[in-house]
Design brief:
Blueprint: H1 13-25, H2 28-40, H3 44-72, H4 76-83, H5 91-126, H6 130-136, H7 143-162, H8 165-191, H9 196-204, H10 213-226, H11 233-238, H12 247-278, H13 296-308, H14 310-347, H15 351-371, H16 375-413, H17 423-447
The structure holds phenylalanine.
Residues 24-25, 27-30, 104, 225-226, 228, 231, 233, 331, 334-335 line the site of phenylalanine.
Length: 451
């Protein structure tokens, strides 16, 4: 994509876009968020509901976002302005996305900062400097979390300001297979340790009595978060999409890739929790509740790397946290790209200025969270669990009843010539018009106690 200063451009071909969109989707949501949610929400029951949310709600919304993006070649606010000329209300859907995205990036920076500091922690541990390792390997609030969160924000600003999308694509291309490889290796290692069976049971054997509204809402929010939906990130990425791209197919690939990596992370982390527990790491309190869910992955995995020990432990540990850092970076880039493309398109600001301005505002919120990480739970509840599905609901309603699915399908004809008459063309509109909005609305109404 020649997304040079101030200008718009395209991805460097088909794989370029898929890589960038997959890079946006795959991130902390898969490896930090998903296993956390599974562990705190009753294991396999969550996995089942999450799977349904990804494919029945997430995928159709992704197709809708990409179509709106490519049809308008605009940022989320501009996209709705263009499709609904003169309307005051419709562009608010885009504004909603900009605000929700900024809030998500604010807490995301803090967790991404931890992954970065854990790369260094693994080195410190290897070289036996326990105090440095303890300092770097902490997920509590304070100056260390603040510094690393800001470093992460700065890295993201630099990339978005330069518009060096070639970098995103290249980083994703190497990162993704390596990440899958290392997850697989670690999973095999963990599954052969004592204690892993209990984790595997929790992850794969559902206890349906655990399904309740809270669980469904969390699963829905997690699916939107992990697939980068509901806030216009994929409208923005779709706006740089060339006309030869088959949108339904690309969205299918991204959904599947994102889901698979989350599934794999669960297969590793749930058993790893119990292996760690059998070695004395406390992960649950007396009532069986998770002790500290935001730090879970960071408590459990280093324990594993230290068990492997020696140079192998170091290499695996460093590689893992490094890959996770890159995965997080390709996601923060897409999060910052939304407000930046808004300022560039709608206010004529240059890309560099817009990146610095937005980065500074978001970085300031990250600082507050870095000093009090207990806020992360609150942000997840408000912005992931409510903000993103509400955004998704509004996007569905807009595409279904204002822009109309026929127009969206027409847009998708480019890249998918024989779409009319296909099964996709008869099924997707039903999801966007009825099934997705209804499911999202039901979950909300139930959560609010209305039904
Ligand atoms: N999908 C990213 C992840 O799983 C986070 C993200 C959410 C990115 C929303 C962009 C938009 O880590």
């Amino acid at each position: 994509m020649a997304m040079t200063t101030g200008g718009r451009g395209n991805w460097s071909g088909r794989t370029g876009f898929i890589l960038a969109a997959a890079g946006s989707a795959v991130g902390l949501g898969n490896i930090w968020g998903f296993p956390n949610q599974v562990a705190s929400n009753g294991g396999a029951a969550f996995l089942i509901v999450y799977t349904l949310c990804c494919f029945l709600v997430g995928y159709p919304v992704m197709v809708a976002e990409l179509s709106v993006g490519r049809a308008t070649a605009k940022n989320p606010v501009g996209a709705f302005r263009k499709l609904a000329p003169g309307s005051f209300i419709m562009p608010l859907i885009g504004f909603w996305g900009v605000i929700v995205g900024m809030a998500i990036l604010a807490f995301y920076n803090v967790i991404a900062g931890w992954t970065l500091s854990y790369v260094l922690e693994e080195f410190a541990q290897f070289f036996g400097s326990d105090t440095t390792a303890a300092l770097l390997g902490a997920t509590d609030g304070g100056i260390k979390s603040a510094i690393f969160a800001l470093v992460f924000m700065l890295g993201t600003i630099t990339i978005v300001a330069g518009g060096v999308s070639g970098g995103i694509e290249r980083a994703t291309k190497t990162m993704m297979p390596l990440l899958i490889g290392i997850l697989l290796l670690m999973t095999v290692y963990v599954l052969t340790r004592d204690g892993s069976g209990e984790g595997l049971r929790q992850y794969l054997l559902p206890d349906f009595s655990k399904i309740n509204t809270g669980l469904i809402l969390s699963a829905l929010g997690q699916a939107f978060f992990s697939l980068s939906l509901g806030m216009g990130a994929l409208i923005t990425y779709g706006s740089y999409l060339d006309r030869k791209m088959n949108i339904p197919q690309a969205a299918g690939f991204v959904t599947l890739a994102d889901f698979s990596i989350a599934f794999l992370a669960g297969l590793l982390i749930l058993p790893a929790m119990y292996v760690a527990q059998s070695r004395g790491v406390q992960i649950v309190d007396d009532s069986g509740a998770l002790i500290q869910s935001t730090g879970l992955v960071f408590n459990v995995l280093p324990e594993l790397f230290h068990q492997i020990g020696g140079i192998t432990g170091l290499v695996v540990g460093v590689m893992f946290f490094f890959l996770l850092t890159i995965a997080a970076l390709t996601s923060t880039i897409s999060l910052l790209e939304v407000p930046v493309s808004y300022l560039v398109d709608e206010h004529g600001m240059n890309r560099k200025k817009a990146s610095i301005l937005m980065g500074a505002i978001i970085g300031a919120i990250s600082l507050i969270i870095a000093f009090d990480p207990s806020l992360i739970g609150l942000f997840v509840t408000i912005f992931n669990n409510f903000g993103l599905p509400v955004g998704g609901l509004m996007i569905c309603l807009f595409v279904a009843y204002y822009w109309k699915t026929e127009k969206a399908l027409k847009e998708m004809e480019d890249g998918y010539e024989d779409i009319s008459g296909s099964a996709f063309a008869s099924i997707w509109p039903i999801f966007v018009k009825f099934i997705c909005p209804l499911l999202i609305a039901l979950v909300f109404l139930n959560t609010l106690g209305v039904i």
